[in-house]
């Protein structure tokens, strides 16, 4: 049976890095970052672009599910509302797939430190810190396995996911 890992978390919590490590540690795996399905400039959030990104994500994930080359499918995205997870899942062919839905969470202090490091390195803009911190508590409301990465490296987070 295939496994589909949905890995959510606020910006800067370590979803992409953890997912890339997970991909390398699981046999026959493939990774999709939801941000890749909506990488535009300028970034526009409209009803049309929201529909487009969901269509893109569902198409790609179903393609991976139906491809015999992959046994482990890793998807990460912010997914801060249960309705986002539910919409993705209800549109996927999950008959022969074990779904593992995870939220990476961390303390506000750890998140601020991680994001400030990214800002200092020019990887992110300063405004991401407050936007990300504002979403931290939203993940506690989701029907997901919570993994606190406040004091975990991305390697340790990936190991914890593998053990689920």
**What topology, given as strand order, has the largest sheet?**
2-3-1-4-5
Tell me the radius of gyration: 15 Å
Quick one: biggest sheet? 5 strands, parallel
Percentage of β-strand residues: 15-25%
Overall pLDDT level: 96
Order of helices and strands: EHEHEHEHHEH
Q: Tally of extended strands?
A: 5
DSSP helical segment count: 6
Basic shape: globular
The rounded distance between the terminal residues' Cα atoms is 15 Å
Q: Could you estimate the helical fraction of the residues in percent?
A: 40-55%
Content-based structural category: alpha/beta
Poorly predicted parts: none
Explain how this protein is built:
With 164 residues, the protein is of the alpha/beta class. The chain has six helices and five strands. The chain has helices at residues 15-25, 47-66, 82-90, 108-120, 128-133, 154-162; strands at 2-8, 29-33, 72-77, 97-105, 145-148. The protein has a five-stranded parallel β-sheet with strand order 2-3-1-4-5, with helices on both faces. β2, α2 (47-66) and β3 (72-77) form a beta-alpha-beta unit. The longest helix is centred in the middle third of the chain and has 20 residues, at 47-66. The protein is globular, with a radius of gyration of 15 Å. The two termini are 15 Å apart. The relative contact order is 0.24. The mean pLDDT is 96.
């Amino acid at each position: 049976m295939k496994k589909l890992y949905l890995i959510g978390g606020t910006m800067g919590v370590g979803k992409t890095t953890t997912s890339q490590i997970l991909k390398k540690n699981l046999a026959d795996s493939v990774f999709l970052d939801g941000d890749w399905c909506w990488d535009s400039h300028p970034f526009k959030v409209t009803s049309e672009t929201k529909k487009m990104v969901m269509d893109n994500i569902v198409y790609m994930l179903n393609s991976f599910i139906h491809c015999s080359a992959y046994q482990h499918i890793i998807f990460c995205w912010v997914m801060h509302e249960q309705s986002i997870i539910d919409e993705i899942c209800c549109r996927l062919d999950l008959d022969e797939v074990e779904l593992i839905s995870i939220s990476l969470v961390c303390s506000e202090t750890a998140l601020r430190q991680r994001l400030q490091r990214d800002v200092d390195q020019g990887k992110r803009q300063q405004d991401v810190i407050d936007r990300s911190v504002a979403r931290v508590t939203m993940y506690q409301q989701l029907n997901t396995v919570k993994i606190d990465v406040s004091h975990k490296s991305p390697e340790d987070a990936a190991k914890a996911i593998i053990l689920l």
